[in-house]
Amino acid sequence: MGLFSGLEGSLEKYIEGFFKDKVSGRVQPADIAKKLAREMRDHKRVSISSIYVPNEYTIFLHHTDWEGISAFSGALSGELQDYISQKAAEKKYSLAGRPLIKFVADGNIAAGNIMVESNFSEAPPEEEKSDAACVPLEHTQHFTLLKDKPLLDAPQLVYAKIRVESGPERDKVFNLNKNSTVIGRRESCDIVLSDDSISRRHARLDRRQGVFIIHDLGSTNGVKVNGDRITARVLKSGDVLTLGATVCTFKVE
Questions:
Q1: CA dist., res. 5 & res. 131, Å (int)
Q2: What is the pLDDT, as a whole number, of residue 238?
Q3: Listing from the earlier edge strand, what are the strands of the sheet with 228-230?
Q4: Distance in angstroms (rounded) separating the CA atoms of residues 52 and 46
Q5: Do 112 and 106 contact (CB within 8 A), yes or no?
Q6: What φ, ψ does residue 63 adopt, rounded to 5°?
Q7: Contact of 155 with 168, CB cutoff 8 Å
Q8: Which of 94, 136, 186, 237 sits most deeply, having the most CB atoms within 10 A of its CB?
Protein backbone atom coordinates (compact mmCIF):
# COMPACT_ATOMS: atom_id res chain seq x y z
CA MET A 1 0.00 0.00 0.00
CA GLY A 2 2.99 2.34 -0.50
CA LEU A 3 3.26 5.21 1.92
CA PHE A 4 0.30 4.20 4.10
CA SER A 5 1.24 0.64 5.05
CA GLY A 6 0.93 0.18 8.80
CA LEU A 7 0.00 3.80 9.47
CA GLU A 8 -2.80 4.72 11.82
CA GLY A 9 -4.69 7.95 12.45
CA SER A 10 -5.32 10.61 9.84
CA LEU A 11 -4.14 9.47 6.42
CA GLU A 12 -4.32 13.02 5.11
CA LYS A 13 -1.54 14.26 7.38
CA TYR A 14 0.87 11.66 6.00
CA ILE A 15 0.25 12.88 2.48
CA GLU A 16 0.83 16.42 3.68
CA GLY A 17 4.07 15.45 5.39
CA PHE A 18 5.41 13.43 2.47
CA PHE A 19 4.91 16.21 -0.06
CA LYS A 20 5.41 19.17 2.29
CA ASP A 21 8.61 20.52 0.74
CA LYS A 22 7.66 19.76 -2.86
CA VAL A 23 4.52 21.88 -3.26
CA SER A 24 4.81 25.45 -4.54
CA GLY A 25 1.16 26.22 -5.33
CA ARG A 26 -1.80 27.19 -3.18
CA VAL A 27 -3.35 23.72 -3.38
CA GLN A 28 -1.85 21.19 -0.99
CA PRO A 29 -2.01 17.40 -1.41
CA ALA A 30 -3.82 17.05 1.93
CA ASP A 31 -6.57 19.34 0.60
CA ILE A 32 -6.94 17.08 -2.42
CA ALA A 33 -7.12 14.00 -0.18
CA LYS A 34 -9.93 15.56 1.84
CA LYS A 35 -11.85 16.43 -1.32
CA LEU A 36 -11.48 12.84 -2.55
CA ALA A 37 -12.78 11.47 0.74
CA ARG A 38 -15.79 13.79 0.58
CA GLU A 39 -16.48 12.85 -3.05
CA MET A 40 -16.34 9.16 -2.14
CA ARG A 41 -18.74 9.62 0.77
CA ASP A 42 -21.20 11.82 -1.15
CA HIS A 43 -21.50 9.41 -4.08
CA LYS A 44 -21.74 6.05 -2.35
CA ARG A 45 -24.36 3.68 -3.71
CA VAL A 46 -26.13 1.31 -1.31
CA SER A 47 -26.97 -2.21 -2.46
CA ILE A 48 -28.62 -5.09 -0.66
CA SER A 49 -25.39 -6.30 0.91
CA SER A 50 -22.71 -3.66 0.28
CA ILE A 51 -21.95 0.04 -0.01
CA TYR A 52 -20.21 0.80 -3.31
CA VAL A 53 -18.14 3.90 -4.00
CA PRO A 54 -16.54 5.31 -7.17
CA ASN A 55 -13.04 4.14 -8.00
CA GLU A 56 -12.12 6.69 -10.66
CA TYR A 57 -11.52 10.33 -9.74
CA THR A 58 -10.58 13.27 -11.96
CA ILE A 59 -9.11 16.28 -10.13
CA PHE A 60 -9.46 19.65 -11.88
CA LEU A 61 -7.03 22.40 -10.88
CA HIS A 62 -6.21 25.88 -12.11
CA HIS A 63 -3.16 25.91 -14.41
CA THR A 64 -0.96 27.61 -11.80
CA ASP A 65 -1.92 25.06 -9.13
CA TRP A 66 -1.29 22.21 -11.57
CA GLU A 67 2.18 23.59 -12.24
CA GLY A 68 2.88 23.44 -8.52
CA ILE A 69 2.43 19.67 -8.44
CA SER A 70 3.15 18.64 -12.05
CA ALA A 71 6.75 17.63 -11.33
CA PHE A 72 5.62 14.84 -9.00
CA SER A 73 2.04 14.27 -10.20
CA GLY A 74 2.76 10.61 -10.92
CA ALA A 75 3.94 9.96 -7.37
CA LEU A 76 1.03 11.95 -5.95
CA SER A 77 -1.49 10.02 -8.06
CA GLY A 78 -0.06 6.74 -6.75
CA GLU A 79 -0.22 7.84 -3.13
CA LEU A 80 -3.77 9.16 -3.52
CA GLN A 81 -4.83 5.86 -5.11
CA ASP A 82 -3.44 4.06 -2.06
CA TYR A 83 -5.27 6.58 0.12
CA ILE A 84 -8.59 5.87 -1.64
CA SER A 85 -8.11 2.13 -1.08
CA GLN A 86 -7.39 2.53 2.62
CA LYS A 87 -10.14 5.09 3.14
CA ALA A 88 -12.67 2.72 1.56
CA ALA A 89 -11.45 -0.14 3.75
CA GLU A 90 -11.65 2.07 6.84
CA LYS A 91 -15.31 2.93 6.07
CA LYS A 92 -16.12 -0.65 4.95
CA TYR A 93 -16.95 0.57 1.44
CA SER A 94 -16.50 -1.56 -1.68
CA LEU A 95 -14.66 0.11 -4.56
CA ALA A 96 -16.18 -0.47 -8.00
CA GLY A 97 -12.74 -1.35 -9.38
CA ARG A 98 -9.05 -0.51 -9.17
CA PRO A 99 -8.56 3.09 -7.90
CA LEU A 100 -7.52 5.58 -10.56
CA ILE A 101 -6.60 9.24 -9.94
CA LYS A 102 -6.12 11.72 -12.79
CA PHE A 103 -5.30 15.43 -12.89
CA VAL A 104 -6.59 17.96 -15.43
CA ALA A 105 -5.49 21.59 -15.70
CA ASP A 106 -8.56 23.75 -16.29
CA GLY A 107 -8.53 27.52 -16.71
CA ASN A 108 -12.20 27.67 -15.67
CA ILE A 109 -11.30 26.60 -12.11
CA ALA A 110 -10.38 29.51 -9.82
CA ALA A 111 -6.81 29.48 -8.52
CA GLY A 112 -6.68 27.72 -5.17
CA ASN A 113 -9.86 25.74 -5.81
CA ILE A 114 -10.25 22.02 -6.41
CA MET A 115 -13.03 20.29 -8.33
CA VAL A 116 -13.37 16.51 -8.23
CA GLU A 117 -15.50 14.33 -10.51
CA SER A 118 -16.00 10.64 -9.79
CA ASN A 119 -16.83 7.63 -11.92
CA PHE A 120 -17.77 4.01 -11.37
CA SER A 121 -15.70 1.94 -13.79
CA GLU A 122 -18.48 -0.62 -13.79
CA ALA A 123 -22.02 -0.77 -12.45
CA PRO A 124 -22.22 -1.73 -8.76
CA PRO A 125 -23.93 -5.15 -8.49
CA GLU A 126 -27.09 -5.78 -6.49
CA GLU A 127 -27.90 -2.10 -6.48
CA GLU A 128 -31.18 -1.27 -4.80
CA LYS A 129 -33.63 1.12 -6.39
CA SER A 130 -33.73 4.52 -4.75
CA ASP A 131 -35.39 7.87 -5.32
CA ALA A 132 -32.43 8.89 -7.46
CA ALA A 133 -32.38 7.73 -11.07
CA CYS A 134 -29.77 5.07 -11.76
CA VAL A 135 -28.20 4.76 -15.18
CA PRO A 136 -27.32 1.22 -16.35
CA LEU A 137 -23.83 0.81 -17.78
CA GLU A 138 -23.05 -1.29 -20.83
CA HIS A 139 -19.61 -2.74 -21.47
CA THR A 140 -17.02 0.04 -20.99
CA GLN A 141 -19.44 2.95 -20.74
CA HIS A 142 -18.88 5.30 -17.80
CA PHE A 143 -21.11 7.81 -16.12
CA THR A 144 -20.04 10.78 -14.03
CA LEU A 145 -21.64 11.70 -10.73
CA LEU A 146 -21.57 15.45 -10.16
CA LYS A 147 -22.64 17.13 -6.97
CA ASP A 148 -26.14 18.58 -7.12
CA LYS A 149 -26.61 17.54 -10.77
CA PRO A 150 -29.08 14.91 -12.00
CA LEU A 151 -27.84 11.81 -13.77
CA LEU A 152 -28.29 12.02 -17.52
CA ASP A 153 -28.61 9.30 -20.08
CA ALA A 154 -25.31 7.48 -20.59
CA PRO A 155 -23.59 8.93 -23.67
CA GLN A 156 -22.82 6.87 -26.72
CA LEU A 157 -19.29 5.57 -26.95
CA VAL A 158 -17.04 7.72 -29.11
CA TYR A 159 -14.11 6.17 -30.95
CA ALA A 160 -11.09 7.94 -32.35
CA LYS A 161 -7.69 7.24 -33.86
CA ILE A 162 -4.31 8.86 -34.29
CA ARG A 163 -2.34 8.76 -37.51
CA VAL A 164 1.44 9.20 -37.39
CA GLU A 165 2.36 11.92 -39.89
CA SER A 166 6.13 11.97 -39.24
CA GLY A 167 8.53 9.83 -37.24
CA PRO A 168 9.66 6.19 -37.32
CA GLU A 169 6.04 4.95 -37.36
CA ARG A 170 4.98 7.30 -40.17
CA ASP A 171 1.64 6.39 -41.81
CA LYS A 172 0.69 3.99 -39.01
CA VAL A 173 -2.84 4.39 -37.63
CA PHE A 174 -3.69 3.52 -34.02
CA ASN A 175 -7.29 3.09 -32.94
CA LEU A 176 -8.20 4.59 -29.56
CA ASN A 177 -10.75 1.97 -28.49
CA LYS A 178 -9.93 1.95 -24.77
CA ASN A 179 -10.88 4.38 -22.02
CA SER A 180 -7.21 4.94 -21.25
CA THR A 181 -4.35 4.61 -23.76
CA VAL A 182 -0.70 5.09 -22.79
CA ILE A 183 1.80 6.16 -25.47
CA GLY A 184 5.55 5.69 -25.12
CA ARG A 185 8.69 3.73 -26.04
CA ARG A 186 8.14 1.04 -23.38
CA GLU A 187 6.88 -2.25 -24.80
CA SER A 188 4.11 -2.39 -22.20
CA CYS A 189 2.52 0.83 -23.53
CA ASP A 190 -0.73 0.59 -25.49
CA ILE A 191 0.85 2.50 -28.39
CA VAL A 192 4.60 1.93 -28.77
CA LEU A 193 6.59 4.59 -30.67
CA SER A 194 10.25 3.84 -31.37
CA ASP A 195 11.27 7.50 -31.67
CA ASP A 196 14.27 8.09 -29.34
CA SER A 197 12.82 11.47 -28.35
CA ILE A 198 9.77 9.72 -26.89
CA SER A 199 9.87 8.91 -23.16
CA ARG A 200 9.19 5.37 -21.94
CA ARG A 201 5.74 6.52 -20.75
CA HIS A 202 5.24 9.75 -22.64
CA ALA A 203 1.53 10.57 -22.72
CA ARG A 204 -1.90 9.17 -21.91
CA LEU A 205 -5.17 9.60 -23.81
CA ASP A 206 -8.31 9.26 -21.70
CA ARG A 207 -11.83 8.88 -23.05
CA ARG A 208 -14.38 10.28 -20.60
CA GLN A 209 -18.04 10.91 -21.41
CA GLY A 210 -17.34 11.05 -25.14
CA VAL A 211 -14.42 13.47 -24.69
CA PHE A 212 -10.74 12.66 -25.22
CA ILE A 213 -8.14 14.26 -22.94
CA ILE A 214 -4.39 13.99 -23.52
CA HIS A 215 -2.02 14.14 -20.52
CA ASP A 216 1.74 14.62 -20.52
CA LEU A 217 3.12 11.93 -18.17
CA GLY A 218 6.16 13.99 -17.22
CA SER A 219 7.92 13.34 -20.52
CA THR A 220 11.37 14.76 -21.22
CA ASN A 221 10.54 16.41 -24.55
CA GLY A 222 6.93 17.27 -23.85
CA VAL A 223 3.54 17.07 -25.57
CA LYS A 224 2.21 19.75 -27.90
CA VAL A 225 -1.30 20.22 -29.26
CA ASN A 226 -1.40 22.40 -32.38
CA GLY A 227 2.03 23.73 -31.46
CA ASP A 228 1.23 24.61 -27.83
CA ARG A 229 3.03 22.66 -25.11
CA ILE A 230 0.47 21.28 -22.66
CA THR A 231 0.17 19.25 -19.48
CA ALA A 232 -3.43 18.23 -20.22
CA ARG A 233 -5.82 19.25 -22.99
CA VAL A 234 -9.26 18.27 -24.26
CA LEU A 235 -8.87 17.22 -27.90
CA LYS A 236 -11.02 17.91 -30.92
CA SER A 237 -10.97 16.12 -34.25
CA GLY A 238 -8.14 17.34 -36.47
CA ASP A 239 -5.81 18.39 -33.65
CA VAL A 240 -2.11 17.90 -34.37
CA LEU A 241 -0.22 16.14 -31.58
CA THR A 242 3.56 16.43 -31.26
CA LEU A 243 5.22 13.93 -28.93
CA GLY A 244 8.95 14.49 -28.88
CA ALA A 245 9.81 14.59 -32.61
CA THR A 246 6.84 12.47 -33.70
CA VAL A 247 3.83 14.29 -35.17
CA CYS A 248 0.35 12.71 -35.22
CA THR A 249 -3.16 13.75 -36.22
CA PHE A 250 -6.10 13.05 -33.90
CA LYS A 251 -9.36 12.11 -35.60
CA VAL A 252 -12.77 11.26 -34.15
CA GLU A 253 -14.62 8.54 -36.05
A1: 39
A2: 95
A3: 173-176, 160-166, 246-252, 240-243, 223-225, 228-230
A4: 6
A5: no
A6: -55, -40
A7: no
A8: 94
